Structures are given as structure tokens and as C-alpha cells.
Amino acid sequence: MKLLGISGTILGAKTSVLVKAILEEVKQRHPDVEIDMLDLRDYQIEFCDGRRMDDYNEDTRSAIAKVTQADFYVIGSPIFNSSIPAPLKNLIDLIPPDVFRHKVMGFTANGGTYQHYLMIENQLKPIAGYLRAFVAPSYVYAHTTHFSPENEIQNEEIILRIRELADELVHMQYGLGRKLVKV
């Protein structure tokens, strides 16, 4: 059973820190789960433009393969102008929708206002619904003040939410079965 963490931005470090923290919790609390990370800062992903998959560069094909091979996901997003960043939307557009069908998704996000958490409810969850993914009810939203100047998470409530989301993702994945028969 493979959990893929996706840090959906090419800027900053906070999103990656949150995703990695959730993956670390899963690794510590559920060692039977294989974890992997897709940090978009490490890839030169081309724009989705309808071409055949074989015509995209190696980084794009590698990112698509990582997403396709995962059994469930934790997706991180910074919030820019009350929305998800273009690199995350582009990645979602590159993946055939049936890849996400009947797979569990959990979300984490970070932003500069306390109201930005609403982007998870109003954008990420509806996208997951369209893709027919199962969405973890909990999520982690971290404000800039929840991080130290070195981008370390310094808020105990956020650390607790990270732990709870890690357990919830694994619980849902086990509860739904490792492999569902597609209809």
C-alpha cells in the first residue's frame, strides 16, 4: 500500500514541510505503509496541452507515473489569491481522471490569512469529488505564524492535526480495501 505526498507548488518550503510531516507520521505510526513524495519544486513539468503522454519530457512522465502508481494521497497546496497554484492544477490536468477513482485523498494547505482554509472546502474537495476520489474528512491548514523563521512547524494544534490526518488516511485506506474493483 503506497501513500504519495504531493507538494503542489514550485515556490516556498512550507507546503513541502506540511506534506513531509504527514508522511513522517504515517511512516512512524504505520510502518507497513510505503510512502513516497512528489515535490513539484524538483520537477520541470510541462503544461498539459493534450499531446500524447510519450511526447512530454521525462520529468512530466515521471510525475505522472508516481501519481498513477500510488494507492492513496496527501496533497499539499499553498493558497495564492484564494486558490490553488497553477502547478498543482496542471498536474491534476495531466493525470487521467480514472487514476484517482476510488482512491483516498487527504489535504493540507498553508496561507497567510485565517480564512484561506476555505479553499480546501471550496476547491480541493470539489475537484476530488469530480475525480470520484474518497476524501478524508479532516485536513490540516497552517497559517504562516504556525511556522518558525526556519519553516519548522511550531504550533501544537497543527502537530496534533497532522497526526490525526495521518491516522485517518491510513484508516480510510484500510477500511475501503487495498484494491477496489472498478465498475
TrEMBL record:
For this protein, the parts annotated as crossing the membrane are none
The entry's protein name is NADPH-dependent oxidoreductase
Q: Name one Pfam family in it.
A: FMN_red
Q: Organism, per UniProt? A: Cytobacillus horneckiae
| UniProt keywords, alphabetically | Flavoprotein, FMN, Oxidoreductase
According to the entry, every stretch annotated as the NADPH-dependent FMN reductase-like domain falls at: 1-144
GO function terms (MF aspect)? oxidoreductase activity
Matches recorded under Gene3D superfamilies: 3.40.50.360
Q: Which residues form a coiled coil?
A: none
Highest classification ranks of the organism: Bacteria, Bacillati, Bacillota, Bacilli, Bacillales
